[in-house]
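Researcher: Hi, I'm a grad student and pretty new to this. My advisor asked me to get structures for two proteins we've been looking at. I'm not sure of the right format, so I'll just paste the first sequence and hope you can take it from there.
Model: That works fine. Here's the first sequence with its structure tokens right after it:
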Amino acid sequence: VIRGMLPHKTAHGKEALGRLKVFEGIPAPYDKKKRMVVPSALRVLKLQPTRKFCSLDRLAHEVGWKYQGVIATLEAKRKVKSKEFYDRKKQMMKLREQARKNVAKKIEPYQKTMTQMGY
């Protein structure tokens, strides 16, 4: 599929195809890292509303890839776990903020001393 998108008959096209790395899912060193959103790559920001687009999984499925359903179920599981993690994180942030408010009066003289010292 991607070969048809590159000028694979020219020298720089062959080099580009040689540099291309394709993975099914997330490769081992990156599956444990925090995922981040790159705003400059968002479709809603970069594409005109009238432009057509396709996703790579649908494109690959149309040419014979057999794992679209498997990836969809794994992605659904990942989203559920991610939501649980985020809810837990919000709850912990709320508790931490409450703890800061509870001890603010007790540590006020120490805090004043530290701000005078430049911390």
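Researcher: Oh nice, that was easy. Here's the second one.
Model: And its structure:
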Amino acid sequence: AVAVLGVGWVVEVVRYRSIRAACPGPTWTTPFGLGALVTMVLNPVPFWTRQAAYSRKGFSVNAMLGRFMVFVTDGDLCSRIFANLDDYILFAHPNARHLFGSENLIYMDQAEHKHFRSMLLPGVYSKEALACYLACQERACHEHLLRVAASGAEVDARLCLRLMNAT
């Protein structure tokens, strides 16, 4: 049994390295990609920070549960990927379906997604709507920063901003 698991791990590492080639990302993965999954779930911020640090070319790669994963940070590259969704599979965070629901926009197929966006586009992204969003965001940020300043204690700015985004 141990030999079978060892051979499986070696096959997984060789497969990952051959697919990865010269792409930025970790040089090796833990057996069957479980390490990346465990790290992502238990400590997500450092995991995604490291993944972003690998992405000098606008993307980085990793393996999770035996699947090859591409993490994209470049807007143009992201647009090119989403323009060719027939060639790619969109895989959101493992908890995304529970958080957003299975009927969320990110899970719609191309035609349905484009139709839904075309219905939203005129009202959601108009100048008036964006001005309203800006005013609401400025007010929420200001109120949050005032609460933090009123505490009088030194606060890590990153934690402060994460808390602000969560509320």
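Researcher: Is there anything I should tell my advisor about the second?
Model: You could mention this: The chain has eight helices and two strands.
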